[in-house]
Amino acid sequence: MMEILKNTKIDFMGKMYYALAITAILSAIGLLTVVQISRGAANLGIDFAGGTAVQIKFNERVPLHDVRRALMDGGITDFELQDLPGQSKVLINAKKGEAHVGDLSKKIISALSQKYSESSMVVDSSTEIGPKVGKKLRTDALWAIIAAIIGILIYITFRFQFRFGIGATVATFHDVLAVLAVFFILGKEINLIIVSALLMIAGYSLTDTVVVFDRIRENLKTRLKKSTVEVINESINEVLSRTLITSLTTFFSAAALFVFGGEVIHDFAFAIMMGIIVGTYSSIFVASPVVLLLGKDKVIGKK
Amino acid sequence: MKKNFIWRLSLIVAATLLAVIFYLPSTHLKASLPEWLQKYGMVLGLDLQGGVHLVYEVDGDKAVDITIERIASSITNTFNDKKIEARAEKKGPDIIVSPDSDIVKKTISEQFPNLTLDSKSEGRIVYKLDGNEIKRIKDSSIDQALETIRNRVDAFGVAEPTIHTQSGNEIVIQLPGIKDTKRAIDLVGKTAILEFKLLDDESPVAAQLPGSILPSEEAKVREQFAGQIPEGDEILFGRDLNKETGVETLTVYLMKKQSLLTGEFLTEARVNIDQRYNEPYVSITFDATGANLFEQLTANNVKKRLAIILDSNVYSAPVIQEKIAGGNAQISGSFGMQEAKDLAIVLRSGSLPAPLTMLQNVTVGPSLGRDSINAGVKAGLVAAVIVILFMLVYYKISGLIADCAMVLNILYLVGVLSAFGATLTLPGIAGIILAIGMAVDSNVLMFERMREELRLGKTPRAAIDSGYDKAFWTIFDSHVTTLIVAIVLFQFGTGPIKGFAVTLGVGVFINLFTALIGTKTIFDIISSRTEMKKLSI
Fold first, then answer.
1. Are A251 and B437 inside 8 Å of each other by CB?
2. Which of A226, B30, B435, B449 is placed for a possible disulfide with B471 were both Cys, Cβ 3.0 to 4.6 Å?
3. Nearest-CB residue to B493 (from A106, A152, A196)
């Protein structure tokens, strides 16, 4: 029998307060990110902020400053350039959303075709989104996350107890906030695809939490002589290897997607990878402590 | 336990066969399959096959405005027909009719029952459109726009376009696989309101207008003459492109606001070639009412110039030489063959009831989609190899069983997506790849339980059974929570994300099946055939 962990006896709940500090910091940065998003100050994708993005694939690598010059010669002023590593592709982002959708992508493409011949470049994609759509998508995304979390809270409360429901909800919130925080710190763009990654993370981190909760519930019923802290610690140790292995296999998939999946899905895969790490951490260090703190004064499991 | 694994095994075999059959139409074998099967198969989303995704907003207020304008001009025409000395004019949401007389009021209440008398002052009567009528115009403007766009897209010839409304007044148009996106956008978005108006060459202002200007000077000219335009007149521009130099210029026209004839009476529009200049033009034919109006209008205005205007852009302004009967007219301008063809299409399919505002335009080139699919396949294979090896090394034979279940899982997933004719998007592919890693999770939970039971000294068979029983609710709970997320994603998501939600949701059910029935059956078969001494886990 091959085992990565054998009979661990780690005092997880004893380290609870250190963990809570880390959790608090991550959540605070995450909340700050949410505030920045709602103020429009974060690095929002054009699907949320409105604007124009054009991705051009050149036959060979072109220096960015040449592209910049070509665009400025074409009368385009407010834009950002980004080249995709390892490929001769350039992404042009003009986020200052104009009230009218329509012309900017055309202008960008024609400015570039003044300098580069038709055969040396291909328009991979162009996206123009009006500010009204961006605002709607932003509120929709927010509601989606809230709806998912409420649904989860109800289900866990129904299947377990209310304090477990709260624990799972807090952990899920924490995971979403923590991944947002990572994106904010790294200056990565937050767009619609990232939001779906966040929802996916919410679901996935919960499966981890459920595995831990299930064992805590089972042990609380049978190990009546022990204290809640002991039972929770034992339970986490018992399921530790499966929690890690289930996370690991999904992490492999996400990593393969991150490395080989192409530029469109790159950040999505990165978010999932972060989410798996944070989700595994939170099921041990966020969800369980909350259950403990909420249940401490009650005599559940102690006779 | 033993007695029912025969039917469980047949269920797995049947499901596998079905999945393979339904997956086939998603492969390149599609063309050689029997016809009934060909209608299944996954459809590639816009992000994978390239194409345009457009969202337009129909301006209902503008549609009401246009209707009021038309009613006003129709009232004036009625007065002219009946030889009543009166006229009607649109002012904001009102129609102002003067002078105030009984015959005027009687005519309006008989011929235009949708108007209600609002107020009277200084010999003028103010009419308003009924509230119900306004609502009806707004509602029908969306249906009309949808219908018109459908006609245009059909005429343009796009395979499998999707055109539908969303959140009330928005129209979503998806044109997959389209190459000439610019042309498609021009064709769909053109309001195509065709109007005939008289030039006001007698006004002294007309003489002061600059003949032709550069496009950049348009705003300046508008501002310069803003105060001087005679009442009931307006300034419009005509676009000319010098084919040799490529320079665009605008011709400035002063004309009467009232449109004497519109495209609503049009029955046919087709492209012809002018023999002299070898240039294409669009010839249009009016129905009986339109032909009649055109005849009257030309008869009454001989030697005057008549402007042919499409969407406020003057195409030409020829001098009326004589009365024209028969209801035929020409639209010429400096356009190429393609442009003339598209103009004929938009005129035939009718005008949009109001201008459309573009809210969203996502265009994906075909090469990006191909790159994405290739990258996705590569990532999927790598993920599969890593997961398979990991499980094999860590759980030995049991790991191999889990690997088989995972492969079946993915096969069922693509089979179901294919059978539903689901749209495969890039996030959808990502979902399938993540499913590779998640598919073995349920088995990991069971295997760890089994190991625990073995440590307690149970026999392999007992360990398998209680491992499954005890892990069941954990697996069930974790799947339900994933399902909740999938439902929320589907409800709130748009386009590609919906595709991801479908993959995730379908994956939940399939995973429950392969984990709880699939691997369990294999374990049961193994443990029943031989008296197991040791479990390879």
1. yes
2. B449
3. A196
* Rounded distance between C-alpha atoms, residue A136 and residue B164, angstroms: 18
Strands (E), A130-276: none
Number of Cβ within 10 Å of residue B343's Cβ equals 25
The full DSSP string for A126-169 is EEEE-HHHHHHHHHHHHHHHHHHHHHHHHHHHHHS-HHHHHHHH
At B196, give phi and psi (nearest 5°). Answer: -115, 125
- The least confident of A8-17, A219-228, B426-435, B521-530 is B521-530
Both B391 and B466 in one domain: the answer is yes
**Among candidate residues B11, B18, B14, the one with its CA nearest the CA of residue B416:** B18
A137, A242, A267, best to mutate vs chain B, most B CBs in 10 Å: A242
The β-bridge relationship of strands B233-241 and B248-256 is antiparallel
| Closest residue, chain A, to B384 (C-alpha) | A253
Residue B491 CA to residue B107 CA, distance in Å, equals 54
Token pair in block for residue A23? 């959790």
| Residue B205 sits in the same domain as residue B298 | yes
Say if residue B243 is in the same domain as residue B340.
yes
User: How deeply is B316 buried, as exposed, middle or buried, from its count of CB atoms within 10 A (0-12, 13-18, 19+)?
Assistant: middle
Average pLDDT over residues B210-215: 85
Rounded distance between C-alpha atoms, residue B21 and residue B24, angstroms = 5
| Confidence band, pLDDT 50/70/90 cuts, at residue A129 | confident
Q: What structural domains and CATH numbers belong to chain A?
A: 13-44+133-295 (1.20.1640.10), 51-129 (3.30.70.3400)
Query: How many C-beta atoms lie closer than 10 Å to residue B7's C-beta?
Result: 10
DSSP class of residue B239 equals E
| Number of independent structural domains in chain B | 3
Strands (E), A145-285: none
Nearest to B329 by CA among B258, B263, B257: B263
Residues B67 and B36 in one domain: no
Range of the domain at B412: 2-46+367-529
Q: Are B88 and B76 in contact (CB under 8 A)?
A: yes
In a domain, residue B145? The reply is: no
Q: What is the pLDDT of residue B485?
A: 84
Which chain A residues contact residue B176 at CB under 8 A? Answer: none
Measured between CA atoms, the residue of chain A closest to residue B490 is A144
In 3-state terms, chain B is what percent helix, strand and coil (to 5)? Answer: 55, 20, 25
A25: part of which helix (H) or strand (E)? Answer: helix A16-39
Is residue B287 classed as helix, strand or coil in its secondary structure?
Answer: coil
Q: Please answer whether residues A51 and A97 qualify as being in contact, where contact means their C-beta atoms are separated by less than 8 angstroms.
A: yes
Identify the DSSP state of B422: P
Taking contacts as CB-CB distances below 8 angstroms, the residues of chain A near B473 are 214
Q: B314: part of which helix (H) or strand (E)?
A: strand B313-316
* Residue range B11-49, pLDDT digits in tens: 999 999 999 999 999 888 888 888 888 889 888 888 888
